[in-house]
TrEMBL record:
Monomer. Associates with 30S ribosomal subunit, binds 16S rRNA. Residues 1-16 have a biased composition (Basic and acidic residues). Zn(2+) binds at residues 286, 290, 292, 301. It comes from Lentzea xinjiangensis. GTP binds at residues 159-162, 205-213. It holds the Pfam family RsgA_GTPase. Residues 1-36 are annotated as: Disordered. This is Small ribosomal subunit biogenesis GTPase RsgA. One of its GO terms (cellular component) is cytoplasm. It is an enzyme of class 3 (hydrolase).
Length: 332
């Protein structure tokens, strides 16, 4: 282009790329008043299986506006999009309702990362075999701690009563008033079935204790894999993901993978004591940082003064506190 042609140009000939707007992005999010209620019954690689109130089972993804909001089995959620449940359809989870209870655990007592096992369950069914593999009281104590801290009612379910007596184990938990159900392989779990009806309950236990066998009896079409116990007394993992199964008589049972460890790094001693109303008020007078274990670990613990009134119950409470502090004999 010649100099003469340049002189003929004016500002209308100049193309300017528009810049970014100065108006801030709105933080308002859609209210989704039309969202339908559902319960999360399964999680798998970024997809959530949800049971609608209509009975349909829907696959959903997490909406972008939820960010990294955790969504776990048992959560009550709001869903929009295609909620027909037809094959190859996908809905969106746009809201997670406030939880009424949460069962959490960590990989071990030093792991700062807590894992939510299930939300909104009313009962924690601790499935423990009386033999093959032998019962581990440390595991039971830790489950009790997690249940009390998370707002679930603990229930002890003892399996394989045809192989061993439950008397010695039950004697350890008499003072805690924990409901106990004893089952046998050759009998239907009628008492357990009645306990679970019309509730959301979570089953937890080591692999090989008969948890999947119970689930298959409670929900005949569940087809949960059943494993065997290894030569070292530990079961093989047969359930790999937590899943909520609808009970024929009403309610839900959440079957969780068999676990080898139950860390309590996220729970404080005060969280445990709060579950014992007869000790909670007195514990408020303890020195700061008191672990409520008594001397020599916690000299000056006010709970020591309550021993004459409730020695058995205080012993049970301190056994749970010892589990939290890693002073128990719990092994994986």
């Amino acid at each position: 282009m010649s100099k003469q042609d340049w002189r003929k140009l004016d500002e209308s000939d100049v193309r300017v790329r528009p810049g970014k707007g100065t108006r801030p992005r709105s933080k308002r999010r859609p209210e989704h008043a039309d969202a339908e209620s559902a319960m999360v019954i399964g999680v798998d690689r970024g997809r959530w299986t949800c049971a609608m109130e209509s009975g349909a089972v829907v696959t959903a993804m997490r909406a972008r506006e939820l960010g990294r909001t955790p969504v776990v089995v048992g959560d009550q959620v709001g869903i929009v999009g295609d909620t027909s449940g037809q094959p190859d359809t996908l809905a969106r989870i746009v809201r997670v309702e406030e939880r009424t209870s949460v069962l959490r655990r960590t990989a071990d007592d030093t792991d700062p990362f807590e894992r939510v096992v299930v939300a909104n369950a009313s009962q924690l069914i601790m499935v423990v075999a009386l033999a093959d593999p032998p019962p581990r009281t440390g595991f039971i104590d830790r489950c009790l701690v997690a249940a009390y801290a998370g707002g679930l009612e603990p229930v002890l379910c003892l399996t394989k009563a045809d192989l061993a007596s439950a008397d010695d184990l039950l004697a350890l938990y008499t003072e805690l008033d924990v409901p106990v159900i004893v089952t046998r392989f050759d009998e239907e779990p009628a008492e357990l079935r009645a306990r679970l009806t019309d509730t959301v309950s979570c089953l937890i236990g080591h692999s090989g204790v008969g948890k999947s066998t119970l689930v298959n009896k409670l929900v005949p079409d569940a087809n949960r894999a059943v494993g065997v116990v290894s030569g070292v007394g530990k079961g093989r993992h047969t359930s790999t993901q937590a899943v909520a199964l609808r009970l024929p008589g009403g309610g839900w049972v959440v079957d969780t993978p068999g676990i080898r460890s139950f860390g309590l790094a996220h729970i404080t001693p005060d969280d445990i004591v709060k579950a014992f109303p007869d000790f909670a008020e007195a514990a408020e007078e303890c020195p700061p940082g008191c672990g409520h274990l008594g001397a020599p670990e916690d000299p000056g613990c006010v709970l020591d003064e309550l021993v004459p009134d409730a020695p058995g119950r205080l012993t049970s409470l301190r056994r749970l506190l010892a589990s939290r502090a890693g002073l128990d004999d719990y092994t994986d």
